[in-house]
Design brief:
By secondary structure, the chain is mainly alpha-helical. The chain has one domain: Amino acid/polyamine transporter I (Up-down Bundle). It is 77% helix and 1% strand.
């Protein structure tokens, strides 16, 4: 490999931050406040701690098992290529599709604020989210290089705008009467705060993209762990500050009213309509770039799974100039994004990734001596992911039973598909 192909520490950190600060924060911030109220920053901290513990396991596994397959490689190494690992890897692919649906839904919620097509926001949402999925799919088929260029520029633009929002917003908090909403008296019950943190956990899952880049990271033993920890810690701080500014800038009633595009609404008290428009544009750029990158990532996951004989080998085939999984991923995303509401999509994504991350932590724990990993940190990460998933399922079932039923059905279906494929393969 040429030195020019190597990924620097700075670039690796950017991959992690770019993966996390995609469309997630724009999509789930309003949902988080509706669940956690004044304790929402604490909910982001809870989710961030679980992400940080999991990133430790990812760092150890990425150093020991550098592979472009990332999570797929870790699961197969830890559990062998059987029904269980195949089911978990299928869930990873579906979770990518769910994340795409989340980003598309966020794009559909922000876009009508700039330009209404029909005068009916609900209809406009579906028009925009469908159009952006189709456009991103076309770009992926046209050129992967274009996808890379869009992502590199988008990461810079969205981070500049978000950090500007943080600095200006922090200044604007002084003397704001809504700041009292952050007092503990306005926090929801502890279990509800944990639930809020787990529903928005999808906003952190992008750090796992560093694993796919691990084979190309220079000085891997030092830079891979640094990349994971630096990226996750920066994003934890960013999310907590954004949550504080949002709650301190707007009354809860206004946050609830603008739940699907609350970050743009939070910019109004500071910068008026200009601030609203700038954050809206940042949201559109971020969600579009996230859809672009995740479509590519999702198609690669399906390719890796089928290459490892956990799905039919036909998925390694090429449709036009990309793996056939790209078209399947795009069609499934269109279906989910136009069928489910944002809360159900976010819940399904969090359940999926919490289960996957629990298993990755468990892999690091099982072979901690081989990977030079701390067994206490890895088992703690696994247990916290598992317990957080249970709390999320129990708490959300009370108010969002449809979302939980869909989430569990997806998990079960992923394993059923794997069982059927393995049995069919033996018969044939």
């Amino acid at each position: 490999m040429n030195d020019s192909d190597k990924i620097s520490l700075k670039a690796a950190i950017s991959i992690g931050i770019g993966g996390m600060v995609g469309g997630g924060i724009f999509a789930v911030l309003g949902l988080a406040v509706s669940l956690g109220k004044g304790g929402t920053p604490f909910s982001f901290l809870i989710a961030g701690i679980i992400a940080l513990l999991t990133s430790y396991s990812y760092a150890k596994l990425s150093v020991a098992l550098p592979d472009k397959g990332g999570t797929v490689k870790f699961i197969n190494t830890g559990f062998g290529k059987g029904v269980f690992s195949g089911g978990i890897n299928n869930l990873l692919w579906v979770s990518y599709i769910i994340m795409l649906s989340l980003y598309a839904s966020a794009f559909g919620s922000y876009a009508p604020n700039l330009w209404e097509i029909t005068g009916n926001t609900n209809i406009d949402n579906h028009i925009y989210l469908s159009a952006i999925i189709i456009l991103a799919t076309a770009i992926n088929y046209y050129s992967i290089k274009v996808v890379g260029k869009i992502e590199s520029y988008a990461v810079i633009i969205k981070l500049i705008i978000l950090f500007a929002f943080v600095f200006i917003g922090a200044y604007g908090l002084f003397g704001n009467k809504n700041l009292s909403q952050l007092s503990i008296s306005n926090w929801e019950a502890p279990l509800q705060l944990i639930t809020a943190g787990m529903v928005i956990f999808v906003a952190y899952e992008g750090f796992e993209l560093i694993a796919n880049a691990a084979p190309n990271i220079e000085n891997p033993k030092k830079n891979i762990p640094r990349a994971y920890f630096t990226a996750v810690i920066i994003v934890i701080i960013l999310y907590i500050v954004i949550a504080i500014i949002t709650i301190g800038s707007l009354p809860f009633a206004e946050i609830a009213k603008a739940q699907d595009y609350v970050l743009a609404e939070a910019a109004k008290p500071m910068l008026g309509q200009l601030g609203f428009s700038v954050i809206t544009i940042a949201a559109l750029i971020s969600t579009f770039s996230a859809i672009n990158a995740t479509l590519y990532g999702g198609s690669r996951v399906s390719y890796e799974i089928s290459e490892d004989d956990e799905l039919p080998h036909s998925l390694t085939g090429i449709f036009w100039n990309q793996p056939i999984g790209l078209m399947i991923t795009a069609i499934a995303t269109l279906l989910i994004a136009n069928t489910l509401n944002l809360k159900s999509i976010s819940t399904a994504g969090s359940v999926g990734f919490l289960m996957i991350f629990a298993m990755v932590n468990l892999v690091a724990f099982k072979n901690h001596k081989d990977y030079n990993a701390n067994k206490f940190i890895t088992i703690t990460g696994s247990l916290l992911c598992f317990l957080a998933m249970i709390v999320l399922i129990i708490q959300q079932f009370k108010t969002n039973s449809t979302g939980i039923i869909i989430s569990l059905s997806i998990v079960i279906l992923c394993f059923i598909v794997e069982i059927i494929y393995k049995k069919r393969k033996k018969i044939l």
